[in-house]
User: Which sequence fits this backbone?
């Protein structure tokens, strides 16, 4: 594990905010279970508090720790085929474990990224990392470190250099309702 990843883990464990490359874009995030860090993340990004965040996990097991039992249909049709990868799945979550700032009512968007360095980071922290793109709300999504707004970088505790592999946001599918609904068509083309 690189010393940069070790440093990022240390900062996140202490409740800090870190910028890091993912497989889809450059993300900015903090641990899911620290309410002060979450509040600060919304402030730093100038994100409205009524806009939920997605959580990055290092395994299906970690996702299951925060979600209500995942329906078999979701596992068979989406998780087995597309995880790890650029697919965010919205499902009902354990509201006692997921702070209200992160979720939309009783649902949570979860993604198991296909990026070995990022998976080391999440595993090292030990809990999911909430991870919107590293930009001020409404600004362009960054895909390379050079795309980052310097003013945003100054507001975080640590920045891991690198670039995203796909340079497209994740596809988001809401499986908490029937029929399922594509919220955002992103890097992965999925026909429902």
Assistant:
């Amino acid at each position: 594990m690189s010393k940069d990843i070790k440093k990022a883990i240390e900062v996140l464990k202490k409740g800090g905010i870190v910028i890091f490359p993912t497989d889809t874009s450059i993300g900015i995030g903090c641990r899911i279970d620290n309410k002060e860090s979450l509040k600060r993340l919304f402030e730093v990004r100038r994100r409205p508090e009524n806009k939920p965040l997605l959580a990055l996990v290092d395994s299906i097991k970690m996702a299951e720790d925060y979600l209500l039992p995942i329906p078999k249909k979701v596992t068979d049709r989406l998780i087995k085929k597309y995880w790890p990868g650029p697919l965010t799945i919205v499902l009902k979550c354990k509201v006692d474990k997921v702070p209200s700032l992160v979720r939309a009512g009783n649902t949570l968007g979860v993604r198991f990224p296909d990026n070995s360095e990022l998976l080391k980071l999440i595993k090292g922290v030990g809990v999911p990392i909430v991870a919107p793109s590293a930009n001020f709300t409404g600004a362009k999504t960054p895909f390379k470190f050079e795309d980052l707004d310097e003013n945003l970088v100054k507001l975080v505790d640590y920045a891991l250099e690198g670039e995203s592999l796909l340079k497209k946001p994740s596809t988001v599918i809401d499986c908490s309702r029937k029929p399922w609904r594509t919220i955002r068509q992103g890097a992965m083309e999925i026909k429902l």
About this structure: The chain has a mean pLDDT of 95. The radius of gyration is 15 Å. The beta strands are 18-21, 26-31, 54-56, 87-92, 107-111, 129-130, 158-159, 171-174, 181-184.
